[in-house]
Specification:
Belongs to the HIBADH-related family. It comes from Actinomadura viridis. The protein is about 50% helix and about 10% strand. It is an alpha/beta fold. It folds into two domains: about 160 residues, NAD(P)-binding Rossmann-like Domain (Rossmann fold, 3-Layer(aba) Sandwich); about 130 residues, N-(1-d-carboxylethyl)-l-norvaline Dehydrogenase, domain 2 (Orthogonal Bundle). The protein has an eight-stranded mixed sheet, with helices on both faces. α5 links the parallel β5 and β6.
Length: about 300
Amino acid sequence: MTAQNLAPVTVIGLGPMGATMAETFLANGHPTTVWNRTAAKAEPLVAKGATHAPTPADALAAAELVVISQIDYRAMYDSLGPATDALKGRVLVNLSSGSPAELRAAGEWAAAHGADLVTGGIMVPPPGIGKPGSYVFYSGPEDVLGRHRDALQVLGDISHVGEDHGLAMLYYQAQLFIFWSTLTSYMHATALLGTAGVSAGEFRPFAAQTVRELAEDGPMGFLKILTEEMEARTYPGELNSLRMQAVGMDHVVEASCDAGIDTALPSALRDLFARGVAEGYGDDGLGSVFEVIRKPAAQS
């Protein structure tokens, strides 16, 4: 496909994510129409070749493929609600954040107005959009996604995770939780060592080694081992029982308290381990905490 006949795209929402997506479409030759509730945000993109739509209805009329990047799904209803007559035949690719239930309801809303909804979660910050390593989780009708795969591919590698509109957000939130909790635990560990005069730079190589070892595919790769245990629902604890881990977490909390730093994060982990022991998993391995996580605390 040549630059002259690349599919047109409309981008709704021109915050850091939406503006970067619009720039990426433009840089890859796609005729790009933009709309934002604050019209001034469109000016830098217009200077780069985008067309500014004066109204949401005009934005919808400009392209079959409409990429939405707003603060939440309520913003989509607020923006497009007055223009529902223009939704028929459109493919709405919403990359905004929300709960899985919200995304499923949005799929029904779009269908009621003759549109198809594809939901998504883009797994890089704005500077990474369209760069190597960028990828996006999508869910919704795979055939609809397939029709616009070439255009959407410029944002990042496409991972279609299922027809259920809520799945993309579940994947997105699961990945963010790993990201946030890993980095926050590194912050806590660095703060703990910092009370003894150890710098972040001194500690970083050891933290990096731990993260690498977690992801290894070999016999000592903890993610691999844990995945096998969770799928089999068996958690050998002969060498490192959960009871032993719970005692160790008590010591981490004590060390943090003695060091005078915040104890919220290790205390939460200590309490989770303690729940597992109380539920009868003390002689099982650390993986048995999965069984505790799978049910609400009130039922544990």
